TrEMBL record:
Lineage per the UniProt record: Eukaryota, Fungi, Dikarya, Ascomycota, Pezizomycotina
Keyword field: Methyltransferase, Transferase
InterPro entries: RNA_cap_Gua-N2-MeTrfase (IPR019012), SAM-dependent_MTases_sf (IPR029063)
GO molecular function, one term: RNA cap trimethylguanosine synthase activity
SUPFAM superfamilies for the chain: S-adenosyl-L-methionine-dependent methyltransferases
GO annotation, cellular component aspect: nucleus
Superkingdom of origin organism: Eukaryota
Similarity comment: Belongs to the methyltransferase superfamily. Trimethylguanosine synthase family.
PANTHER family in UniProt: S-ADENOSYLMETHIONINE-DEPENDENT METHYLTRANSFERASE RELATED, TRIMETHYLGUANOSINE SYNTHASE
CDD domains per UniProt: AdoMet_MTases (cd02440)
Protein name per UniProt: Trimethylguanosine synthase
Catalytic reaction(s) noted: a 5'-end (N(7)-methyl 5'-triphosphoguanosine)-ribonucleoside in snoRNA + S-adenosyl-L-methionine = a 5'-end (N(2),N(7)-dimethyl 5'-triphosphoguanosine)-ribonucleoside in snoRNA + S-adenosyl-L-homocysteine + H(+); a 5'-end (N(2),N(7)-dimethyl 5'-triphosphoguanosine)-ribonucleoside in snRNA + S-adenosyl-L-methionine = a 5'-end (N(2),N(2),N(7)-trimethyl 5'-triphosphoguanosine)-ribonucleoside in snRNA + S-adenosyl-L-homocysteine + H(+); a 5'-end (N(2),N(7)-dimethyl 5'-triphosphoguanosine)-ribonucleoside in snoRNA + S-adenosyl-L-methionine = a 5'-end (N(2),N(2),N(7)-trimethyl 5'-triphosphoguanosine)-ribonucleoside in snoRNA + S-adenosyl-L-homocysteine + H(+); a 5'-end (N(7)-methyl 5'-triphosphoguanosine)-ribonucleoside in snRNA + S-adenosyl-L-methionine = a 5'-end (N(2),N(7)-dimethyl 5'-triphosphoguanosine)-ribonucleoside in snRNA + S-adenosyl-L-homocysteine + H(+)
């Protein structure tokens, strides 16, 4: 698929000379981010900072799929971006419906196009808008899981030794937790690898496990996921 985007702000960079200098490190990682990059992936400049690399997105999709209660058949990706996670969730085949919410229309165009490249664009229901409004339509539906990879507040989040989730911009942990647990108990948040675990632990339920998984690439953690609600990860029994 090589139809050109033809819209300002949406790019299909196929040669290093075209690629913005300040993003150069992503050029060298492009096939680690998208295995099918050269089949015509569309990106915005901002999307490079936030897209979930394909191997990690696949691993997360597998973990959510295996551990979510079986009666959960619908998953909502609240911050779909250019489609990294939504595509992986749709490809997993675990869900009857995958919804992808994104407020930026150009980013959404990229996501739809990228999903076509991966052959799953018809398996995803696309909702352009603010997820905190749009998600209201799922209230009362008992079969839903929410996945959310929010913005982390620019590129500086990595410099803190421990990342303060009360200061995450534009939406902090409390806002995300309260907004999404109104919809369902099962909420997965994709957060910076240095996130303050004590702040996360405050949202744990009495007597219940709260699962946190690091996702690594090339020997280093890239991010972590917090699994709120009744996810069932097999626990190794002590001898
Ligand atoms: C970190 S990126 C998501 C990346 C995505 N997981 C991927 O792999 O492409 C966060 C996205 O959330 C979008 N966004 C920010 N606030 C939003 C909101 N209130 N509702 C919906 N989308 C929002 C941004 O435009 C951005 O594309």
């Amino acid at each position: 698929m090589d139809d050109n985007p033809n819209e300002k702000g949406i790019h299909q960079w196929s040669r290093v000379e075209q690629f913005p200098e300040h993003l150069k490190k992503y050029w060298f990682q492009r096939f680690k981010i998208w295995e099918k990059y050269d089949q015509g992936i569309w990106m915005t400049e901002d999307a490079w900072f936030g897209v979930t690399p394909e191997p990690i997105a696949n691993k997360i999709a597998a973990h959510i799929g295996e551990s979510a209660p079986t009666e959960k058949t619908v998953i909502v990706d609240a911050f779909a971006g250019v489609g990294g996670n939504a595509i992986a969730l749709a490809r997993s085949g675990r869900w009857e419906r995958v919804f992808a919410i994104e407020k930026d229309a150009k980013t959404m165009k990229c996501a739809k196009h990228n999903a076509e490249i991966y052959g799953v664009s018809n398996k995803i229901f696309w909702l352009t808008g603010d997820c905190f409004d749009v998600i209201g339509r799922f209230i009362g539906q008992t079969n839903v899981v929410v996945f959310a990879s929010p913005p982390w507040g620019g590129t500086e989040y990595g410099t803190d030794y421990v990342f303060d989730l009360t200061k995450m911009e534009p939406y902090n942990l409390d806002k995300l937790y309260k907004s999404f647990t109104k919809i369902c108990k099962e909420v997965v948040l994709y957060l910076p690898r240095t996130s303050d675990l004590n702040q996360i632990a405050r949202y744990g339920q009495e007597g219940k496990r709260l699962e946190v998984a690091h996702y690594a690439m090339m020997g280093a953690s890239k991010a972590l996921c917090v699994y709120f609600g009744d996810f069932n990860f097999e626990v190794e029994q002590e001898p």
